[in-house]
Amino acid sequence: MTDPSIGPTSHTFVSQRLRLHYADWGNASAPPLILLHGGRDHCRNWDWVARELRGDYHIIAPDLRGHGDSAYSPSGDYSMGAFVYDLAQLIHQQKLAPVRIVAHSLGGSIALRYTGAFPETVAKLVAIEGLGPSPAQQAARAKRTAAERLRQWVGETRALAGRIPKRYASIEEAFGRMQGENKHLTPEQARYLTVHGVSQNEDGTYSWKFDNYVRSFSPVDFQPEELRALWANITCPLLLINGKESWASDPMRDGQINYFKDARAVAFDRAGHWVHHDRLDDFVAEVRAFL
Question: Global pTM?
Answer without folding.
Answer: 0.97
